[in-house]
Design goal:
The complex is a heterodimer of chains A (about 280) and B (about 350). Chain A is built from five helices and 15 strands. By secondary structure, chain A is α/β, with parallel strands linked by helices. Chain A folds into two domains: about 10-95, Beta Barrel (Elongation Factor Tu (Ef-tu), domain 3), CATH 2.40.30; about 100-235, Nucleotide-binding domain of ferredoxin-NADP reductase (FNR) module (Rossmann fold, 3-Layer(aba) Sandwich), CATH 3.40.50. In chain A, the strands form three sheets. Chain A has a seven-stranded mixed sheet with strand order 10-9-8-7-11-12-15, sandwiched between helices. A six-stranded antiparallel sheet of chain A has the order 4-3-6-1-2-5. Chain A starts with 9 loop residues before the first strand and ends in an 8-residue tail after the last helix. Chain B folds into two domains: about 1-210, no CATH class; about 210-345, no CATH class. Chain B is built from twelve helices and ten strands. The termini of chain B are far apart. Classes of the chains: A alpha/beta (about 280), B alpha/beta (about 350).
């Protein structure tokens, strides 16, 4: 990368938009040149004349000609993302950061916890693992959302549940009047009561809102997972993506360069990691 | 070789006004006011105002290599070869860190590289110190030993010219073609040695109250309350980071026209509340004292672990610029002191 301009933008066209929930949508993008990435790495997505933000693709890394990016309306740039239409152009740069170390997951019972829009990066991981499922012993996906209406990727769940070696458990915090839900109603962390995985030497990957990451990690430690086996997606303010702007610094680490996936062991002694 | 100061000024005038050497810009510190000893880097003023000696200019050298606002995609740096004269050791040391940060193995900032590759640096030894100068506290000294193309050491009405690179050799040859030079004598060398020792002594004398061994672990472990006293007057204006020779935190603005993507980088400050805030409002350092402490930890802990260089070169500009009159050295001393009593009384 050193020879090329690291700020260079690859234009990408939106060829489909999936409205996942009232605040979350998935853009299906076709970049002008393919952007190969490894699952867990992120890209910077620009809305022309508005700004850009870091997002982790939610599609399998075995596909690079097109890319899914699932985005929640949460601030200035993402407000504009939610106004984009099919055929509009956005800009992409990347990929940046370290990927999930999936080669370490081979032969293991893998636990994935995705909360809210945190299901997006973990879906990329999940789909990538599915593409080589024979390499892994089992995949358990715990998915959480505030309400049934906030649960994303609903349209794929039945298909995923048919797959052997996959256990997909979902929970919502509450069910508002008028919404229907036949699965668990509890915090996602309580779903740990529903599983029977040996925590010894098996990986768990967590992505979700800060409060879920924090208490999820504590519950996983109680469950018996070792800090080295807990993989956390530390989504900080990753402005540049390659360790120049310093906004995402966590102690001696850059979330963008050394992360965004960290083991809890790496960062447990740093300050304010959950903020 | 040694050159008379009049000849050197005449040479620089030839470069600036008559295109000698083919420089697009000749940047030299000039005194800000007639009776002031403060200077600013400038390419606009006549030789009468050149200030090659004294102490570092008010503005950091970084601003000539990493502009406060610059288009980076498509990369827009383009000016031709620049001659920058009168650079001090503290600013040169900062460039060493910036080189590692902005031209590292992972990525290269295209504009920074352009300016680095198209600038010839002539440094000059300090002949005076500002009240906030403290290079000797952070392992520096008031004269450059590396990082320059050519260095000037004042001796009376003359300058000793020392080359530091092949480009510097070429520049010396150009000077030689324009002016009479003489070889330094044993006497000159002794005189320079004495001058340099004297400058170091003055700096040590000025900074004696602040002397402490810099220890990143101790700084990291200092409780937040210890920082609170010093952070209290801070108004979070970000002046310290904007004038720092090593601060390079940036934000990237999108100024695209239609779908022609344009990225403009501008400097940011970790002292500002919005600095690390993410969408949704969470921030790792919501309190001023946390942001205040972050600058010290960045300079003495994070930057050394990232680049193997201290983030502070002792230029003292942050103290000079501070609207709340917070002395960087005093804060550092207090934070490094072992006990609370030590930090107040000593």
């Amino acid at each position: 990368m050193s020879a090329a301009n690291p700020y260079a933008i690859i234009p990408a066209t939106i060829y489909e938009i999936i409205e996942e929930s009232p605040t979350i949508r998935t853009l299906r993008l076709r970049p002008q040149t393919a952007i190969p990435f490894r699952t867990g790495q992120f890209i910077e997505l620009s809305v022309p004349n508005v700004g850009e933000g870091p997002f982790t693709p939610s599609s399998s890394h075995f596909i690079s000609e097109v890319m899914d990016v699932t985005i929640m309306k949460a601030g200035f740039v993402t407000d504009y993302v939610h106004r984009l239409k099919i055929g509009d152009t956005v800009g992409l740069r990347g990929p940046y950061g370290k990927s999930y170390p999936i080669e370490k997951f081979e032969g293991r019972d893998i636990l994935i916890m995705g909360g809210g829009v945190g299901m997006a990066p973990t879906r990329s991981l999940f789909l990538t693992l599915l593409d080589e499922l024979d390499k892994y012993r089992s995949i358990t996906f715990l998915a959480g959302a505030r309400t049934p209406g906030d649960m994303i990727y609903k349209y794929q769940i039945e298909e995923w549940r048919q797959i052997e070696k996959v256990n997909f458990i979902r929970a919502v915090d509450r069910v508002p009047d008028g919404q229907v839900w036949n699965e668990h109603v509890c915090l996602i962390t309580k779903l740990l009561n529903q599983i029977h995985i040996d925590p010894h030497d098996n990986p768990v990957i967590v992505c979700g809102p800060p409060v879920m990451m924090k208490f999820g990690t504590f519950d996983l430690l109680k469950y018996g997972y070792a800090p080295k086996d807990i993989y956390l997606s530390m989504e900080k303010k990753m402005y540049c993506g390659f360790g120049q702007c310093r906004h995402c610094v966590i102690g001696p680490y850059y979330a963008c360069k050394d992360g965004p996936v960290f083991t809890y062991e790496m960062i447990q002694n740093e300050e304010n990691i959950w903020e | 070789m040694i050159i008379h100061s009049h000849s050197l000024i005449a040479f620089l005038k030839q470069c600036r006004e008559n295109g000698l050497g083919g420089f697009s810009q000749v940047i030299i510190p000039r005194l800000s006011l007639k009776n002031s000893t403060d200077s600013f880097f400038s390419s606009q003023f006549p030789p009468e105002t050149y200030h090659l000696d004294g102490y570092r200019p008010v503005d950091p050298l970084r601003l000539l290599f990493y502009f406060p606002r610059e288009q980076v995609f498509p990369a827009a740096a383009n000016s031709g070869k620049r001659l920058i004269v009168g650079v001090k050791a503290c600013d040169l040391k900062a460039l060493l860190l910036l080189d590692k940060a902005l031209m590292g193995p992972d990525f290269v900032d295209p504009n920074y590289r352009y300016w680095r590759e198209n600038s010839i640096i002539v440094s000059s030894d300090c002949t005076a110190i500002a009240p906030t100068c403290h290079c000797t506290l952070v392992g520096g000294q008031p004269f450059a030993t590396r990082g320059f193309d050519l260095n000037l050491t004042r001796i009376g009405d003359e300058y000793l010219l020392s080359t530091g690179s092949p480009v510097g050799e070429e520049l010396l040859n150009l000077i030689r073609s324009q002016a009479e030079l003489r070889s330094p004598t044993e006497e000159d060398r002794k005189r320079i040695q004495n001058q340099q020792n004297q400058m170091i002594e003055r700096l040590q004398e000025q900074n004696r109250p602040y002397e402490r061994t810099i220890n990143a672990a101790r700084l990291r472990e200092a409780p937040l309350e210890k920082w609170l006293r010093d952070a209290k007057p801070c108004i979070g204006c970000g002046g310290c980071t904007n004038i720092c020779p090593t601060c390079y935190c940036l934000i990237l603005n999108d100024e695209s026209k239609g779908t022609d993507f344009v990225k403009v980088r501008s400097t940011d400050s970790c002292q500002w509340h919005g600095y690390a805030r993410v969408a949704g409002g969470a921030s790792p350092r919501p309190k001023m004292v946390e942001r205040f402490r972050n600058r010290y930890l960045c300079k003495f802990d994070y930057m050394p672990s990232n680049f193997d260089e201290l983030g502070c070169t002792g230029c003292g500009r942050c103290t000079e610029v501070c609207a709340a009159e917070i002395d960087f050295r005093e804060v550092l001393r207090a934070a490094l002191s072992q006990t609370q009593a030590d930090s107040v009384n000593n």
